[in-house]
Amino acid sequence: MSRLSGATFDRTYIAGQVKDHDKTVALINHEEGGLQKKPNQPLQQFLDVTFPKIKMHTQELHQIQAGMSGGKGGAKSGMSSSSGM
Questions:
Q1: Which positions of the chain have pLDDT values less than 70?
Q2: Rounded to two decimals, what is the model's pTM?
Q3: Cβ-contact 8, 72 below 8 angstroms
Q4: Structural contact between residues 4 and 12, judged by C-beta atoms closer than 8 angstroms
Q5: What's residue 69's pLDDT?
Q6: Alpha helix segments (H runs only) across 1-85
Q7: Could you point out which of 2, 15, 31, 44 has its C-alpha 20 to 30 Å from the C-alpha of 70?
Q8: What distance lies between CA 52 and its chain's CA centroid?
């Protein structure tokens, strides 16, 4: 990525973030099923707080990526200040 710039960098960066966030959501969904069989209170409390934020960030990333596919990029690729990031 160090050789990329501008809109190409933005698209590549967002694509990686989307992929990683999608993997994280899938992993947590899978692990939550295991928590029902073998409860882990500290982990469940952590997920109760963080998982909604991860899902929100994932949705935002998908929206950013969709906006970039129309040939846009640059400043429009930034996260909103309300995202908590």
A1: 70-85
A2: 0.71
A3: no
A4: yes
A5: 77
A6: 6-37, 41-68
A7: 2
A8: 11
